Amino acid sequence: MAIEIRPARGDELDQLGLLTSYVYGGAFGDGPDNLPAQSQRPEWTLCAFDGAKMVSSFSTFPFTMRANGKATALGGVSVVGTLPEYRRRGLVRKITTQAFADMREKGQSVAALWASQAAIYQRYQYALATQLRHYSIDTVDIAFHDDDGGSGRVIRTDVTAGLDVIREIYKTFIADKTCYLHRARVMWSNNALQPSEQDGPVEVAVCYDTTDTPCGYVVYTLRSGRVDHEARSQEIKVRDLAWLTPDAYRSLWSFLARHDLVGRVTWDSAPLDDPAMEYFREPRMLHTRDNEGIWLRVVDVAPALEGRGYDTSAKIVIGIADDSLTPWNGGSYELEVSPSGARVSKSDATPEVALSLKTLASLYCGFRRARDLAHWGYLEGSEGAIAKASQIFATRHAPHCPDHF
Ligand SMILES: CC(C)(COP(=O)(O)OP(=O)(O)OC[C@H]1O[C@@H](n2cnc3c(N)ncnc32)[C@H](O)[C@@H]1OP(=O)(O)O)[C@@H](O)C(=O)NCCC(=O)NCCS
After folding, report:
1. What pTM does this model have?
2. Structural domain harbouring 331
3. Same structural domain for residues 360 and 231?
């Protein structure tokens, strides 16, 4: 029987639950109503069916992402899986190809995902866009080299009552950043505020400045018996942390440091430009490790580049290599950018820099600089053009996405 590729119906989402239970080995729950099944709407999915049987699943969340200060529509690709009996027959390639065309039609000019194995997606022109910085530090080592532990008042608050306050802080925190997602309430409850039997209740603490204005927050869990230490066996796991002033950042860490029975504070989703390494007296005691974050893909070059913020005024012609999954993308584009907006159009002019869609994704989010990409053999152009591209695509902050989807 021919395989059909189409969105799942509402009464087929239980199959998506069972399929994802199996292919992810229970990581997101087992059974027809596991987390992936609960978080889907039929119209977001694109699945493969052998008769009535779902054999591949795929879905695209309609997210909004920050792109150097602008809000842009992002296709958040999730629940990619094929039953083992049907693997290596090109089903995910087929679905991905159709999904990119659908995203283009819906105005989602960039796509992103968390990859189980990067090899699957790099061939589809996804580039690494963010990393998750992991810290693990003993509270006795939380100290500032200049002895400034901040002057904010940090107060624990009820999770439900505190949500409105921390949502506002988060919105301001991400406003001029890149790759952070706009969080609907359900995203808060499925990520930062998701209860965990293993880690204990979710705690929220808000920092107020001297005028009583909320200026930062930390979401965390606290459990004892986690650290092999006679007196300080408790562990704090930071889930989410946002700050609007350096003083708030310092105050939040000082608040964590006041947990005398805590022998370890971990945070596994700090951004690469987090300032702890600069502020702390002994940065090596953070035991920093960087892990892969999200992978990003440019689905439609012109609207993607127009949908992003720029901090410089310049003009450049870029040449994008042909791509079999999104054939509309290949060719030359003229970009005219300024802090007030960008105009991007197809052009007959000779490109000043030539690159693949994957390299464009690295540039788009500011994860890589044009100069480094040229140095590594991923971008071609004159010295002057490479310098211009480096300036045009620079982002104000390191791209970051702490939310899993
Ligand atoms: C990954 C997975 C979804 C692929 O499904 P599939 O229907 O077999 O996919 P396809 O046959 O279309 O293969 C997709 C491409 O990825 C490649 N690929 C698949 N698995 C791969 C792997 N483990 N490592 C490297 N490449 C891989 C294939 O060679 C193919 O490349 P091509 O399109 O250039 O020919 C499937 O193996 C699976 O369900 N794995 C377990 C769950 C998982 O990892 N999901 C991804 C979550 S982000």
Report:
1. 0.95
2. 300-392
3. no
For 186, which DSSP code?
A: H
* CA-proximal residue: ligand 1, atom 43 (nearest): 81
pLDDT digits (tens, 9 = 90+) for 322-375: 999 999 999 999 999 999 999 999 999 999 999 999 999 999 999 999 999 999
113: in domain: no
Contact 202, 189 (CB under 8 A): no
Q: 304 and 182: one domain?
A: no
CA-based nearest residue to 46, from 17, 18, 9: 9
Looking at the predicted structure, is the pLDDT value of residue 198 above 90?
A: yes
Beta carbon of 85 within 6 Å of any ligand 1 atom: no
Residue 216 Cα distances to 65, 70, 162, 250, 376, angstroms:
21, 22, 12, 10, 39
CA atoms within 13 A on the CB side of 154: 26
Mutate to test the pocket of ligand 1, among 46, 47, 58, 87 (most ligand atoms within 8 A of CB): 87
Q: Could you tell me whether strands 110-113 and 214-223 are parallel, antiparallel, or unpaired per DSSP bridges?
A: unpaired
